[in-house]
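Schema walk-through. Below, the input block comes first and the output block second. Nothing else is stored per chain. Lengths vary across the set, and this one has 229 residues.
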Amino acid sequence: MTSKRYNKLPKSTKLLKPESIDKLLGNVKKNCTTKFDESIDLNLQINNKQKKNEINLRTFVNMPSGTGKKIKVAVVCEDSVINEAKNAGADIVGGEDLIEKIKDGNLNFEKLISTTGMMIKLSKLGKILGPKGLMPNPKLGTVTNDIKKAITDVKSGQVEIKNDKDGNIGLSLGKKTFTDEKLLKNFEAVIDVLEREKGNNTVKGDLIKNAYLTSTMGISYKIKLPKNI
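--- output ---
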């Protein structure tokens, strides 16, 4: 059974023709009728089934307007770096002691950063961290000796872009309370990254097949992308 709130939302939006995101933001925000600050979400379907290979994206985007979310960051590092990590804003910091806690199943963080030297020991926990998407990765900037920058990037709005086996990507552009300008800046940053990734991969045709805009508890609208990607 659907709620009274949901029943008041527009129906059959899939029948509407695609519009540019700046024209859709007003409708999506208007549908945010819950009491909490809903996320404004971007959902993409990529053309990952290619004749010679399958495209699997895994990269990140630094959202210029942030995401509106507080991210709990853990850092595995040498003793000499612990104070630097704490001063940079890490929520959990440790060396081999933290690795042992993770091994025991203590995963009370959302992002894990490691220095290059500690990755040898941390990599043994692939079966624990991998399935949860928590294993640090140099391509994502989470295996680095510039711990301060890595923590700052994650805390200020770094978002991973990764497709599932069906080619779907879902990420948040921000919150309902963000101005349209802030949401558009984040959207443009995502588009720029995807355009770059298309150039890095041998893609026949467009990389993005479909794009939709929705909110946490709302309904989706099809986006007309600003360029062929």
